[in-house]
Amino acid sequence: MNMNEIKKTMLESKNWAIYGATPDKNKFGYKIPTRMKNHGYKVFGINPKYKGETVNDVEIYSSLDEINEKIDCIDIVVNPKIAMMVIDEAVKNGIKYLWFQPGTWDDEVIKKALDNNLNIVYGHCVYAIHGMEE
């Protein structure tokens, strides 16, 4: 699958985990889950710092392991160092689709994701894509 096909598959998938969710309204970790929820996605926030909080009806968990539903895709809104750990967590939990927001990846992150046979999107912003539809 090329990146456009992966992007299409991901955008059609409805259960998303947002890694880096935050109650800070100025950050994309707040804006992305809110916009996705408004577009009909079921969204789960992940951020150990805010575990147990709810932001705009999105529950925040400390890791993927705590979510009792099947996650189709992970949207990554954290720095590349943390993104490396997200890849490990995705592999452990059998999640094959990862979307790296701008600034969350570097060559090492992309190589690791591809070496683990993950379907990835990078260089595109899911927030901007859904913003074009409004």
Features:
134 residues, 7 strands, seven-stranded mixed sheet, alpha/beta, 37% helix
Summarize the structure.
This protein is α/β, with parallel strands linked by helices and 134 residues long.
Stretches where pLDDT is under 50 for at least 5 consecutive residues are none
Q: Provide the residue-averaged pLDDT.
A: 93
Oligomeric state of the chains present here: single chain
Order of helices and strands: HEHEEEEHEHEH
Helix content: 25-40%
**Beta-strand content bin:** 15-25%
Shape: globular
Question: What's the alpha carbon Rg, rounded to whole Å?
Answer: 13 Å
What structural class results from the helix and strand content? alpha/beta
State the helix count: 5
| Largest beta-sheet characterization | 7 strands, mixed
Total number of strands: 7
Amino- and carboxy-terminal Cα gap: 28 Å
Main sheet: which strands, in order across? 3-4-2-1-5-6-7
